[in-house]
What we know:
Largest sheet: 6 strands, mixed
Strand content: 5-15%
Radius of gyration: 17 Å
Helix content: 40-55%
Structural class: alpha/beta
Oligomer: single chain
Number of helices: 7
Low-confidence stretches: none
Mean pLDDT: 95
Strand order of the largest sheet: 3-2-4-1-5-6
Distance between the termini: 33 Å
Amino acid sequence: MGILYLVRHGQASFGASDYDNLSELGHRQSRRLGEYWRERGMTFDAVITGTLKRHRQTWEGIAEGLGLADREVLGWPGLNEYDAEAVIATIHPEQLPKPDSPEKYRHHFRLLREGLGAWMRGKTAPAGMPSYLDFLAGVTTALDHVRGKHHGARVLVVSSGGPISTAVGHVLGTSPETTIELNLRIRNTAITEFAFTPKRHMLVTYNTLPHLDGPAYEDWITYA
Length: 224
């Protein structure tokens, strides 16, 4: 039986002009995860990442923490995140103000939750994005690849909250509403673990942060 570890990227630059970059804390979260695994003798037989900058940066931090030199990594576009702004625009065409207060953050995520539900049900078509069925296929083909190519291996995937929660929802057969809630609660550099055989994946853990356990890291836990 193989083990698949899915890691959400470190904290990105929410509210900045370019979200697709890790913050300084995001870099530290990523390195800390690699250090945690190095302390436990963890190695991976294969590494797969989405092709966004924050995915690559997160893997680079993990590799640094692990003490690894360059190694082959498979980039998988189907593990890239949906465009949250495009999702929200389908139900709220007016541009949102910068989320610089708790109420604005809550408003942003209320709209995102509603927009995701409409997209997943095929009621909207966010600009520049695939249909939800095609987005789902991008995730499930990655899972198929892991089962087909890495039986019995230890595999790391670095991606985003949307693809990871979609993978969990697919494996568990959850409703769209449950998949959305899984998505919106996943934390930066959180680990989700699947056991897998050539026929199926089985959820072992979801959204865990063992590398940030303890008072020294209580301010490192983030969601966006």
